[in-house]
Automatic annotation (TrEMBL):
A Pfam family recorded for this sequence: PilZ
Domain called Type III secretion system flagellar brake protein YcgR PilZN: residue spans: 9-89
GO terms, molecular function: cyclic-di-GMP binding
Organism lineage: Bacteria, Bacillati, Bacillota, Clostridia, Eubacteriales
Organism: Desulfoscipio geothermicus DSM 3669
Record keywords: Cell projection, Cilium, Flagellum
PilZ domain sequence ranges: 96-207
Superkingdom of origin organism: Bacteria
Protein name per the record: C-di-GMP-binding flagellar brake protein YcgR, contains PilZNR and PilZ domains
Amino acid sequence: MSQQITFDVNQKIQVSRIAEENYFDSSIQDVRGGFFSIAIPYLKEHPLVLYRGEEVRVRFTLQNASYRFTTRVIGVATNNIKLYKLAYPEKIDRIQLRNHVRLSVMLDVEYAVKESESQKLKFTKGITVDLSGGGMKLAARENIEENSLLILKFVLPLKNKAEPVQLKAKVVRSIKADPQREVYHLGLRFEDITYREEDMIVRFIFERMAQQKRLR
């Protein structure tokens, strides 16, 4: 579905070459008639080097929706800082928010309640009940108050290799799952998750769903 979207200065975006999977973080620095300029995209400490005429994919989120489009590099600006000039796209597509796809799965998780920056974290073991790109339901042996901030550590068993993940999450609900035992289901929402981390989780979900479908 094509959307009419207005770009804003300092808007966060991600950029990828057409034939590559990795997205690099960037931001819009200038908007002009027919084109907009972006800061050099980075993936951790690695810059994305682009050339005039090269096609790229761009994606961003806005008001709880995700968007993407394809465009091309039309030049480089080198005044105070180096910027890439991208042609304004002919169309911008709204894409399905994949973080709503939820998978019932059991993964070992280590979690710690973070109360301050200087605190030494004490990790406790839990197990996922379900997982999505936006959060998880975690089975734990303790009741944790809503709005508490957790640090999570777990491993995603992707098809190619296992990927360790460490994320921040906020407790949005806590329900006692078993009246006979001290087991609680914590509804967690990921905080400050990167596109790369979300992509890994969603990739794992779809890989596992495809595997389950083949076994039926």
